[in-house]
Amino acid sequence: MTQSNNQSSSRRDFLKVTTATAVGTGILSSLGSSAHVYAGGDDKIKVGLVGCGGRGTGAASQALSTKGNIKLEAMADAYRDRMDKSLSNLQKQFSGEPEKVDVAEEKKFVGFDAYQKLLDSGIDVVILATPPGFRPIHFGAAVEKGKHIFMEKPVATDVTGVKKVLEAAEKAKKKNLAVGVGLQRHHQAPYIETINRLKDGAIGDITSLRCYWNSGGVWEPRLAREDAKSEMDYQMRNWYYYNWLCGDHINEQHIHNIDVCNWVKDAFPVKAYGMGGRQVRTDKKYGEIYDHFAVEFVYEDGTRMYSQCRHIRNCWNSVTEHAQGTKGFCDISGAKYETTGGYKWKYRGPKKNPYQVEHDDLFEAIYKGTPYNEAEYGAKSTMTSILGRLATYSGKPVTWDEAMASEVSLMPKEFSWEAKPVTVPDENGFYPIPMPGITKVL
Amino acid sequence: MQAKTALLAILCCATSVAVAADPADAKTEKEMKPYTEKIANTDVSFDMVPIPGGEFVMGSPADEKNREEDEGPQFKVKIEPFWMGKHEVTWNEYDIWSFNLDIQRRKLMRVKADDKEKAADAVTRPTKPYTDMTFDMGHDGYPAICMTQLAAKTYCKWLSEKTGHYYRLPTEAEWEYACRAGTKTAYSFGDNPAKMDDYAWHYANCNDTYQKVGQKKPNPFGLYDMHGNVSEWVLDQYIPDAYKKWSGKGTVQFPISPTTPEKLYPRVVRGGSWDDDPEALRSANRIASSADWKIQDPQIPQSIWYHTDAIFVGFRVVRPLKVPTAEERKKYNLDPVIPADEGR
């Protein structure tokens, strides 16, 4: 089966669900004009990019590489140097079509409120690719302003943020805004085909799931303490190592694998048990995040998802997902399964770049005015990762409902270069590290 | 009796020290012997085998089965002697450099770096990969994959500093010479692909993954996995009609199409891989790199160190007996050139 077949069938399902919701709430008649603006397929779509790092720049490039008349017109970042670098890279990349990257000086916005100015600058679609801590704020504002949205995963770093995103996701549906989330495996043919087969019972009922993101870790902190203008500057530049910005690596990376298991299961866990810590990456420059987690998630029907993520070099590495069923087992990431009867199947179809396909699909929906909203499962898979973190940091089982009732926020009270983040280092530069058995997370 | 054996052992030892010292210290082609290079402050070593100098005909004859246009016209090449890695570079070796394992280990053991190691520490190391680059196909004893040509070249530079021996990637001509090992047939074991399973890992026998190095039969030079397992980086830019400018010029010395930092693609890998059918594993077959090899790197700029999608590409090192001069290194772009704005 080809990818496009899968895409259209999932689109159809989606249409059914969304239409039902729309009718139920009496919204169908009041659909915003946005649904029809691009119906001809040749109108210009103006894109704005919020968060001009490597991934944001990549996402902008993929948006510009979709079919249609698409133009990058505005950019926003906390830092001017990141924006300039991103713009020059995009200009280089689209040097053959310079009209695609046309960002006037007055459409470059810098600082913590840059996103707001960008949303007011007349763009149609916004790409949200800052560190994930800001996503709920940016997503909420973009929905408020009626923009179509592509947002990177994860979509939050704490429960409060997840709830904001879920709320805004509902609003986005009512406004018929297209929302894509950067969990690109959902647009990757081998995954789609394999998971469809699992749902058709290829290996019987799923009895357990396993997933891993064990790797050597990510980029080293970029800004030295002595070069930082303030604590906020220091944490922002080194964002991966601070929880309000990143949510720890179980959230920032491992969400991909956790999300695949949720997708197979068509459900979200109700409870998590976890253990983990900071074994190797102990230097103060590594902020406050852990370097390993092992979490057991429980779904409502009792099925377990076993998850590991690790940032330690020279150990067993794997970035994969697997399912065990009553009639066989499946290497989901390897797009193959084997039944107890000895039947073996492996995906042999085309493998397109999923980072491109996720934008192709989103922009097609925008042009056609087709309902398209990935925010809900994006938020709930984010929540699953956060649940795993809470269980690990506390060393205690945490239920989905308890966690969702929590009002704990990791976010600073205000956003400025002088503002104080929630966690700050001691006189020696060390941050408080969550301690299982002691740390309270709810 | 025991004492006698011990004495004999001491004598033997003393004799061998007096005669040949370390085989890695050979100064002439005649002295070149296989040797094992240990990587300091690790428990990792790798084997080098001598490749004698000589002449050969590069490219394939027009009537070779599955031959492609870029393999001709054939021309004569003179090759200077060198040592070549008996195996493809494994993750065990590669990760020492890419993950700073030597530095980490020195710290842990409280060992001070010597001068060679200090020089090696000054060589750039890659940024950490975002994901697991083995793609769950195995680590210890398996060939390193997914590196760019720049990463492979930088590894060689690091290895040179670390060991005090000059290592680099082979030129395309050196690679083919070593692969043919004196043969003129499509493969170093003849023309019949039916014998392939004795010598190489390829699509039909590999079970969808690369395999541990050195499990199949070696070629006449004693090199393993030259055909298949992973394709191997060479130093050359890929120019489809490169052989045209050399053919009819007699015997060419050191033919190479030097790379330039401006032109990233295509560059050459050789030997074919586990993911290829037998015709791609032919001695003369040339494979061109492309931007598709990075298609799943979602960042811009894309990493200069990783070909996220080239899970079939690795490399092996060579050590020329005659170390090139600074001028030669510059002329042929033998040294890695790290872009100034790297380290985003």
UniProtKB/TrEMBL annotation, chain A:
It is an enzyme of class 1 (oxidoreductase). GO terms for molecular function: inositol 2-dehydrogenase (NAD+) activity; nucleotide binding. It comes from Gimesia panareensis. The keyword Oxidoreductase applies. The keyword Oxidoreductase applies. Keywords: Oxidoreductase. InterPro entries: Gfo/Idh/MocA-like_OxRdtase_N, Gfo/Idh/MocA_oxidrdct_glycsds, GFO_IDH_MocA-like_dom, NAD(P)-bd_dom_sf, TAT_signal, TAT_signal_bac_arc. This is Inositol 2-dehydrogenase. Residues 45-179 form the Gfo/Idh/MocA-like oxidoreductase N-terminal domain.
